[in-house]
Design a protein that fits this description.
This is histidine kinase. The chain is built from 21 helices and 8 strands. By secondary structure, the protein is mainly alpha-helical. The chain folds into 2 domains: about 280 residues, no CATH class; about 290 residues, Heat Shock Protein 90 (2-Layer Sandwich), CATH 3.30.565.
Length: about 800
């Protein structure tokens, strides 16, 4: 039976198959790409020249900064000379005031004009000085006031002014060290040494005049004079080593006069460091002052000239860097302009013929039958080849147009025939839909008829069983009864697959044990099923029969794929009232791979799609599809997973809404006590004494099976063992019988796992137990056989009869 007919809509093959083909593409123009290329070319040129221009700009900034710092250092050197003169004057005045005891030398030492001139230079230069040279100038006013007030010694005055002068002169030393290699000059490197020599010369003059004014040997001043003289000589020696020949000659010429010679004689006699004698103090202080002042002035003149040359040299280096920056910038700009012009001209040489080809092609494509061919007057290049190809297509289009006119005269009859076939196709499609619904209706009608006939057959068999006394005949009747129950299950499958609902649905809750008994009674190999006492709960009537049917399908599948002698266990548990019910069906088969279990679980979760193999063979995958339909009908959960010891476990979850507890548990059947409780995790088969209302089944145990559990409270402790069925009882049909026990090699899947085959046990898993004795036992009492076998079948049908009777009563 085909469960579903696929509805395929036919379409015209000439029609686009995907919306992607009909989607309009975004417009793109060659001109835009060419403009982007021109832009990128210009950016590339600018990117290549930018590092060179940036480097030149940085060099120019460094040269400009160095030139400005050199100018500031030159002005700071002038301020240092002013402060040196003020230092020498105040040092001599303080010494003279200390000797005479009068303030007249202090009052006349520093005139307001000299003080204002120094302060004005400091004010003009303070904002441009760095912190290292600006901070010491804050001590000038306090030191000057202390000197004028006579509160400072000559040594203190000289040391304080020397600190400020050294800080100002250090600017020139810093600028000369930062001179770039292209502006380097030996004279520039020697300027700091000449500055030190000039400052020491001025300090020597001031200390020497202060010492000559006083009395005694003046050992401290003599030591300072000797120290400053030694510093001057060392600085002049360094200057001579570093300076170029022109600088040395300029210094020798400036300082080599008569006055300088006289100053050298004074310094040689007075700067000994051993104190001053009376002869030394007898010298004319004015002559000593003039000689030393002239020598210091000559040194400052040379220093100023060399400093000016250094400043001019740095300014020239700055101008050179500016020129280099301008040249490099011009080169980059010229390259950018050249690339831009060439790119634009190249783009125009492409876009103009392209526009002519595009417009001509569009004109011909719009109306190829009336338009003239494309005319092109450009160069004989690729565009000319394209124009030639377009004109060839134009000629071909004219030829095809003529052929199309001729073919259109012959296609009128074909169009009419096509329209007729399309109408016929639509009519056949409508008929197919009607037949599809009719087939399902016929399936549902035949399924209901089969169920009615099976119900009548079961009623007839039940009547025969009640009046039969021959044990063999009674066994045959029970076999027919069992076959009829299986036929009824397959009829219900047919009704389910046809999409119809059962005609009769019980409304009263059914005990779970009756649901399990009904499920076991509807399978072929019910004798291999072991059950444990289920929870004392009841299943709602709307779901009881479908749950029994679902469990029967799982049990039938488990027993069909179990090896000979293996047991199938049916267990269940429920934590309590209002909780979900869990049922397990475990087999001991060869097991399934994880991939196969995942595939089967996916099919169990899909109740709308028929199994993939339904078209390959009759009944392939219908059992799992039936389980999926039944589970989806009531919201049951059902899936498979591997059993730890081998085999497969089918787990069924019944929602709490379909489960209600039995207040007093299961009542004991006639001839027994309370229902036994089995603890532990291993399932134990349950055997109860039969009753007339709800008889329990007592199937014959398989070979090697565990003995039945003795029910507590049983009346007859010596109940005879049920007879072993004969070979004709409860055997499979010829087409599904198990294969022989000879040499056999199991088939394997792609993953190397054994293929589950009905009734076949894989090699290595065949049970070692011997086959049971199939010789019929003719000495068994008929009533005993009826009680042991008939109770199982009648108990399974009790729920169906009660539901039908209740439905008839309401009707």
């Amino acid at each position: 039976m085909r469960a579903q007919v696929r509805n395929t809509t036919l379409r015209d093959p000439a029609e686009p198959a995907a919306p992607r083909a009909t989607r309009r593409r975004r417009g793109s123009r060659v001109r835009s790409r060419l403009l982007i290329g021109v832009f990128l070319s210009g950016v590339a040129v600018l990117g290549a020249g930018a590092p060179m221009v940036v480097s030149a700009g940085n060099d120019y900034k460094d040269a400009q900064r160095l030139a400005e710092e050199t100018a500031v250092a030159e002005r700071a050197l002038t301020l240092a000379h002013t402060l040196a003169d003020e230092r020498d004057t105040l040092t001599a005045a303080v010494a003279a005031a200390a000797v005479t005891g009068s303030r007249q030398p202090l009052d006349s030492a520093l005139s307001p004009e000299n003080r204002a001139r120094a302060d004005r230079k400091i004010t003009e230069l303070r904002a441009e000085l760095p912190a290292a040279a600006r901070d010491p100038l804050t001590d000038l006013i306090p030191l000057r006031d202390a000197a004028v007030a006579g509160e400072a010694a000559p040594e203190e005055i000289s040391a304080g002014y020397t600190t400020m002068i050294s800080a100002l002169e250090g600017l020139t030393r810093d600028t000369t060290r930062a001179t770039p290699p292209d502006a380097a000059d030996p004279t520039a490197d020697a300027l700091p040494d000449l500055i030190r020599a000039t400052d020491s010369s001025a300090a020597t003059r001031g200390l020497l005049l202060a010492a000559l004014v006083g009395t005694g040997e003046q050992l401290e001043l003599s030591r300072l004079v000797h120290l400053e003289r030694a510093r001057e000589e060392a600085a002049l020696a360094d200057f001579a080593d570093l300076a170029g020949p022109s600088a040395r000659d300029a210094y020798a010429e400036a300082v080599g006069g008569e006055e300088s010679d006289t100053a050298e004689e004074y310094l040689a006699g007075l700067a000994t460091g051993t104190g001053f004698t009376a002869a030394d103090r007898a010298l004319d202080r004015g002559d000593v002052h003039d000689a030393l002042a002239a020598r210091t002035a000559a040194q400052r003149a040379v220093l100023g000239e060399l400093s000016t040359e250094h400043t001019a040299r740095l300014a020239k280096a700055r101008d050179s860097e500016l020129m280099a920056l301008q040249i490099k910038s011009g080169v980059v700009l010229a390259a950018f302009t050249l690339v831009l012009v060439v790119s634009v001209q190249t783009a125009r040489s492409l876009t103009r013929p392209l526009a002519a080809v595009r417009l001509g092609s569009s004109r011909v494509a719009a109306d190829p039958t009336t338009q003239e061919p494309v005319k092109y007057a450009g160069r004989n290049d690729e565009f000319a080849e394209v124009v030639a190809a377009v004109n060839a297509l134009h000629a071909r289009a004219l030829d095809l147009h003529q052929r199309a006119l001729e073919a259109s005269r012959d296609s009128g009859g074909l169009r009419a025939e096509r329209d007729r076939l399309l109408v016929e196709q639509q009519e056949l499609g409508a008929q197919l839909q009607q037949l599809h619904g009719a087939v399902h209706g016929m399936f549902a009608d035949h399924a209901e008829r089969i169920l009615i006939l099976v119900s009548e057959q079961l009623a007839v068999l039940e009547g025969l069983e009640e009046h039969e006394t021959d044990p063999d005949q009674l066994a045959v009747l029970f076999s027919l009864d069992h076959l009829a129950a299986r036929v009824r299950r397959h009829g219900e499958n047919l009704l389910l697959l046809a999409g119809a609902e059962p005609a009769v649905q019980p409304t009263e809750p059914m005990p779970l044990i009756d649901v399990l008994r009904a499920a076991v009674s509807e399978i072929e190999r019910y004798e291999v099923v072991e059950t444990t006492p289920p929870p004392a709960v009841r299943i709602m009537g709307v779901a009881a029969r479908d749950l029994s049917h679902l469990l029967a399908e799982l049990l039938d599948n488990a027993t069909a794929f179990s090896p000979a002698g293996a047991r199938v266990r049916l267990t269940g548990w429920c934590p309590g009232a209002g909780q979900v019910l869990t049922l397990h069906v475990e087999d001991e088969g060869p097991g399934l791979s994880e991939q196969r279990i995942a595939e089967l679980n996916a099919r169990l979760g899909d109740s709308t799609t028929p199994p993939a193999g339904a078209d390959l063979g009759p009944g392939i995958g219908m059992g799992l599809y039936t389980v999926a339909r039944l589970a989806a009908r009531h919201g049951l959960g059902c899936w498979l997973h591997a059993r730890p010891g081998g085999g497969t476990v089918a787990e069924v979850i019944v929602p709490a809404a379909l489960v209600e507890s039995t207040p007093a548990g299961y009542p004991p059947v006639d001839g027994t006590g309370a229902t036994p409780t089995v603890t532990g995790t291993q399932p134990v088969p349950t055997v109860t004494a039969p009753t007339q209302d709800a008889p329990a089944p007592a199937p014959a145990p398989a070979a090697g099976a565990a003995p039945a559990v003795q029910v507590p409270g049983q009346r007859d402790a010596t109940t005879p063992t049920p007879p072993t069925p004969n070979p004709q009882e409860h055997t499979r049909a010829a087409d599904t019988a198990a294969p022989g026990t000879g040499s056999w090699t199991p088939e394997t899947t792609e993953n190397g796992l054994p293929v589950r085959t009905r009734g076949v046990t894989p090699v290595g898993s065949m049970p070692a137990a011997e086959s049971p004795d199939l010789t019929p036992n003719r000495g068994t009492d008929a009533e005993e056989l009826r009680r042991r076998l008939g109770g199982f079948q009648r108990g399974a049908r009790a729920g169906h009869r009660d539901a039908a009777a209740e439905e008839d009563g309401r009707a």
